[in-house]
Amino acid sequence: MISSILQKLSGKDKKIYIISHSYPDYDSIASAVGLCWILQKYNIPSVILYHGEIESPSLVETIRCLDLELQYYTPDDKNITSDSYFLVVDAAYGNSNVISLPGTVIASIDHHETLSTKSLISDIRPDYGACSTIVCSYMQDLSLKPNEEVATLLLTAIFVDTDFLKRKVSSHDIEAISFLNNYGSLEKASSTANNSLIIPDVPLIKRALEKLVFYKFMAFFYLDEELRQEVLAIIADTIIKLEEITLVVGICKHKEGYKVSVRSEDKNNSAGVFIQTILREIGVGGGHVNMAGGFIKADMWPGENFIFDRCLDYVRSK
Ligand SMILES: [Mn+2]
Q1: pLDDT surpassing 80 at residue 115
Q2: Which domain of life, per UniProt (predicted)?
Q3: Which of these three, 143, 161, 193, is where a domain ends?
Q4: Fewer beta carbons within 10 Å, N or C terminal of the chain?
Q5: Which of 133, 160, 193 is the last residue of a domain?
């Protein structure tokens, strides 16, 4: 797949822009950095763009320490015009979580379940735990050996996205870790992935836990405050550890609306299907069997009781 992407990129006299979903996380940044590094090896200049703030303090710190140059995407940037070329990572172009781009999207490289992408090439591998694993497979296909920084960043992303190989992990992810371990630091990667909270998160987590409601096998909470995406995810990942609970729904405010995070331990109650059921006609959402995420725009917010009732209806129907 990477060879056809490189083929499409060769001979272009412009920089290639690499962009991910908005509010980028570890996996999207690591995938972009890995891809940028590959293109460099083929003398194809590229720039990593991002859109939506990078919320994770540890990711911001990682970017600062690695001296990575990321450029904030604004639609009025004079350099980015309708004859620009893009690669989209950790997301599929055409989905609501990627900003609309003015030029040609050469490829969407993603590990989320998606129906269609508006790109010339689609490399969608929903069975992979991380998009970084796909990028790592490109390096192996091209017999490239990543440097320590790139390898460690990719390792960190695989740990974050699979929650240390506990979630949606495939043999490809395990192989990628084993490959990257030859070049990067497993210890550094796991330490970074394991330090994504900061002390100011504690009162927010406390208030979210106080809002928890249980019904049969479901746990539900709604926090009327802003939480970072990764904090919401960590709370949901913690609650799903309760033995009696196999379905977790967490909702909080987020920028221009409300963020929804779902976890499931029961393959008959797929988190992806569930989130689409509870968000129908009010928001967008999707994901995998074990985890899913969604968003409700502020002007579509029906109130927490409305969503809670939909969750109850779903659980009662089971
Ligand atoms: Mn990802």
Answers
A1: no
A2: Bacteria
A3: 193
A4: C
A5: 193
Stated pTM of the model: 0.90
Best CA proximity match to 194, nearest among 164, 165, 239, 162: 164
- The β-bridge relationship of strands 46-50 and 70-72 is parallel
The mean pLDDT of the chain is 94
173 Cα to the center of ligand 1, angstroms: 12
Residue with tokens 């003015």: 102
Domain of 254: which CATH number? 3.10.310.40
Q: How far is the CA of 20 from the centre of ligand 1 (A)?
A: 10
Q: Are residues 162 and 88 in the same domain?
A: yes
Residue-wise pLDDT for 179-227, tens only, equals 999 999 999 999 999 999 999 999 999 999 999 999 999 999 999 999 9
Distance in Å, CA 223 to ligand 1 centroid: 25
Domain that holds residue 137: 2-193
Ligand 1 centre from 316 Cα, in Å?
A: 32
Return d(Cα 22, Cα 52) in angstroms, integer.
Answer: 5
**Token duo for residue 92:** 């599929």
